Automatic annotation (TrEMBL):
Its cofactor is Mn(2+); Mg(2+). Binds 1 divalent metal cation per subunit; can use either Mg(2+) or Mn(2+). HAMAP family: Non_canon_purine_NTPase_YjjX (MF_00648). This is Probable inosine/xanthosine triphosphatase. The lineage of its organism: Bacteria, Candidatus Gottesmaniibacteriota. SUPFAM superfamilies: ITPase-like. GO terms for biological process: nucleotide metabolic process; thiamine metabolic process. It holds the Pfam family NTPase_I-T. Mg(2+) binds at E35.
Length: 173
């Protein structure tokens, strides 16, 4: 089974490999850089969903994997606070599509100030916590949770949620 993730980020690829291996045998997971066609840091649920869908659809324009995944992180402004989360879009070879979302978590005002100056969440996290390339490591959730939850763990739940119709075909068809 061939699976392509619309990203070259090793955290996203590792997460998808881990989850798909729980449900399917003989999998091959690879990453491919695909444009989201949304802003560098989506700031609404709709924009984030669009980015995830665009990444998954973009894979099918050049490849024909069994599953194509788009994973897009975004921010939402709710009651004077900003929350981070990710949407995951899974498209099958026959173009059936399912979406899943991670938990959301509040961002610090210091991070938001940096993001408002044009940086992505990963860059803001690196500045606030004096880390490097956290986007391909534990992520902002890893820093904020003091290591209890990392980016891969957060993304795993969204991938599982998006995968539900494909592992329970009799219930969703």
């Amino acid at each position: 089974m061939k699976i392509i993730v619309g990203s070259s980020n090793p955290v996203k690829i590792k997460c998808v490999r881990k989850i798909f291996a729980k449900y399917f045998e003989k999998i091959s997971v690879e990453g491919k850089k695909v444009e989201s066609k949304v802003g560098r840091q989506p700031e609404s649920e709709e924009e984030t969903i669009k980015g995830a869908r665009n990444r998954a659809k973009g894979i099918h324009t050049t490849d024909n994997p069994d599953f194509a995944l788009g994973i897009e992180g975004g921010l939402e402004h709710i009651r004077k606070k900003y929350y981070a989360y990710a949407w995951i879009c899974i498209r099958s070879k026959d173009r059936k599509e399912s979406m899943g979302r991670t938990a959301s978590y509040p961002l610090s005002f210091r991070m938001i100030d940096i993001i408002k100056k044009g940086k992505e969440l990963g860059e803001a996290n690196d500045i606030v916590f004096k880390t490097k390339k956290s986007k391909i490591g534990k992520g902002a959730i890893g820093s904020l949770s003091k290591g209890y939850l990392d980016r891969s763990g957060l993304l795993e739940q969204g991938v599982i949620c998006a995968l539900l119709p494909f592992i329970n075909k009799d219930l969703y068809d």
